[in-house]
Design brief:
The complex is a heterodimer of chains A (252) and B (207). Helices cover 24% and strands 20% of the residues of chain A. Chain A has six helices and nine strands; from the N terminus they run H-H-H-E-H-E-E-H-E-E-H-E-E-E-E. In chain A, strands 2, 3, 6, 7 and 8 form a five-stranded antiparallel sheet that branches. Chain A has a four-stranded mixed sheet with strand order 1-9-4-5. In chain A, a hairpin with a 4-residue loop joins strand 4 and strand 5. Chain A is globular, with a radius of gyration of 19 Å. The N terminus of chain A is likely disordered. By secondary structure, chain B is mainly alpha-helical. Chain B has a single domain, classed as Transmembrane di-heme cytochromes, Chain C (Fumarate Reductase Cytochrome B subunit). Chain B is 66% helix and 4% strand. Chain B has a two-stranded antiparallel ribbon. The radius of gyration of chain B is 19 Å and the shape is elongated. The mean pLDDT of chain B is 91. Classes of the chains: A alpha+beta (252), B mainly alpha (207). At the A-B interface, helix 1, helix 2 and helix 3 of A face helix 1, helix 2 and helix 7 of B.
Chain lengths: 252, 207
Amino acid sequence: MSGQRNKPAVSLAEIKPELERLSRRRFLRSALSLGGLTMLTGCDLSTHSGVDSALETMLRFDDRVQAALFSRQRLAETYPASAITRPFRFNAYYAEWQVRPTPDNWVLSVGGLVADRRSWTLQALMALPQQEQITRHICIEGWSQIGQWSGVPLGTFLRRVGADLSARYVYFKCFDGYSTSIDMASALQPQAILALDFEEKPLAPQWGAPLRLRIPTKLGFKSAKNLEAIEVTNKYPGGYWENQGYDWFAGV
Amino acid sequence: MDRRETGRPAHPIAIRVMHWIGVYAMGCMIFSGWEIYNASPSLPFLFPAWTGLGGWLGGALAWHLSALWLLFADGIAYLVYGFASGHFRRDLKPPRPAEVGRDFVAALRFRLKHHMGQYNAVQRVLYAGVIIAVILQVMTGLAIWKPVQLWWLAGLFGGYPIARHIHLATMFGIVAFVLVHVALVAIHPSTLKSMIVTVPAEIEENR
């Protein structure tokens, strides 16, 4: 990424060991439960590093299975306006009262493997072709709801900035401290959009103002809100939840 | 009781190995499934936290999506073996309703005889039922894991939210089977031995 604005206070590389330690500890809380005791019989209950790395290996395997099942041509089901869930449920890694307002002079930064690294204002994004969708948002927790979003197809945007479409990852950084990343194939699926509107109105802060990713082929936590930067890269970028142990591909 | 023995084992070694792999895989799936359920309960109760596997949602999902493949492989191997060896044809032959009624009443009166390696009508119904339930559980599980890519499978179960409810309901069915199954094994402890070591099957008496 370019420009001072994009420089994170803490880089992922700096906190990676700590995140890995946290994620390991979280997997290992299983040792204290009946399920853990039953299923880990024979294992040393104080150090499960073998179990953890086995689980991580399986998640990588699941990611490969998910990538193989994914088809760029396959569309998520769309619904009539009457199916929209109301009230729509707020969800983030923090409570609703902690929602951040859009910073003054907000722009979207673009970095990594792209030809044009100029930042985008909201007006410039609004001038790009728009697409509307009514799709199901499925949370990793199991609940789901149907919502209506519209905005710029991510594929259109990536081509506009001259992104290397053979790169592996698209990384999203948010001004609320959140981040996530997706595979390029999913980014180019036609329903992945950079949403500007929710229910035909400009995004309110709790729905991700001023710009969010909306990607109905992934679990909800991939649809990052409050975007501030997009980066195209071949280096695995991880993400807020992914670094803690959620499976990375998270396709539906 | 007729105690004559046949030459074959009550449970072939392949069945015993697949049974215990299945127990482990189902245990992982059920306990991690309870932890996943607790993240967003669709019924007005939670499973006690100490019964969960994984420690938190991410850990539970890691277990669930790992043990899935063990259960899948074990289940496919069991189905192939069951059909190829004649196990299903011989031992899980669908009983006539009258047989089920007779054996069920006998079971409730604790008069139902157990013959090692022979399944009575109630057992045949329960074992066939739990096999179908586990197949249904894998199918609804795949449907809610991949409702977009496997849209036809999710559609078969009425879409994502309904498939998720069926997945939960089927879990209760499987757990109910396990409770009955384990209770009956407790009543006939020799059946536990026969699922571990080679024990000759008994010849069914004339009824």
